Amino acid sequence: MKPFLFLGVRPEDGPADDEYAAVLRCTGLDESTMRRVRLEAAPLRDVDLDDWSGIVLGGGPFCVSDPEPTKSAVQRRVEADLARLLDAVVPADVPFLGACYGIGTLGRHQGGVVDGQHAEPVGAVTVELTAQGVADPVLGAGPATFQAFVGHKESLSVLPPHAVLLATSAGAPVQAFRVGRNVYATQFHPELDVAGLETRVDAYRFDGYFDPEEAEDVVAAARRSGVHTVPPVLRAFVERHVRPRDHGRSRTVIPGNGIGVARG
Fold it and tell me: Which SUPFAM superfamilies does the UniProt entry name for this protein (predicted)?
């Protein structure tokens, strides 16, 4: 099979490594079949879309709706790299799934409105699939209503006009959407369990997601939430989009200006 490409943006090694490990567990893949590139570490370069079965974008502390003057040079570069990638991914309908930060990235790229109107505190929420979500081969792989962990300062307040709404929650009207047949984004974290949430609470306790003095309460509430498993979204995405190796096909190469991406 052709491997999948995982794009991480977390600057902190602990949460970054834990997120990647969680994605491997959820997909059933290993480091040879879900290869990681950390976008915050160096510029992205030369992604040949034909080398990959699909692309997964993880979450992180960046917010695309931050005022431009407040964004670091790294954040601006990451956003430019992802915009260039999506410029090719979306028209070609290349399998893509972005989680949390990914929904803002894809949503803004596709003409949606991303702002702070529907931020959700760190913790468990009830996610409800729409009729289109129930029928979707990726979101519909699990139950129509489920609990998942969230924690975000921004979200989509207006869906891109051509996108399909797949899931919602009481606090955020857009919990998942799809563009075309194969390009997805979720507001909830499809990879996150209680242990992973604890890791992120420790790492981001001073990043404004909650009062630092309430960190232990946030973790305790997560433990009481009853969220013991993650939704099968990542596994369904991977199983749907596995591609065999082939030869002689036309190539779609996205040029970059930094380190290369390991080939499939």
Answer: Class I glutamine amidotransferase-like
Range of the domain at 82: 4-260
Q: How many domains does the chain have?
A: 1
Structural tokens at position 90: 């979306």
H/E stretch holding 81:
helix 73-92
d(CA 218, CA 189): 16
Look at residue 254 in the predicted model and tell me its pLDDT. Answer: 62
Distance separating alpha carbons of residues 33 and 19, to the nearest angstrom: 16
pLDDT in tens, 197-252: 999 999 999 999 999 999 999 999 999 998 888 999 999 999 999 988 764 445 56
What average pLDDT does the structure give for the chain?
Answer: 93
DSSP-assigned beta bridge partners for residue 88? none
Strand (E) positions, 76-175? Answer: 96-99, 113-115, 120-129, 145-152, 155-158, 164-168
Q: What is the mean pLDDT of residues 108-121?
A: 96
CATH number at residue 254: 3.40.50.880
How far apart (Å, rounded) are the C-alpha atoms in residues 49 and 159? 26
Could you give phi then psi for residue 96, rounded to 5 degrees? -145, 140
Count CB-CB contacts under 10 A for residue 162: 9
pLDDT tier, 52 (very low <50, low <70, confident <90, very high otherwise):
very high
Query: Which residues does residue 129 pair with via DSSP β-bridges, in sequence order?
Result: 167
Q: Is the Cα dihedral 7, 13, 15, 19 positive or negative?
A: positive
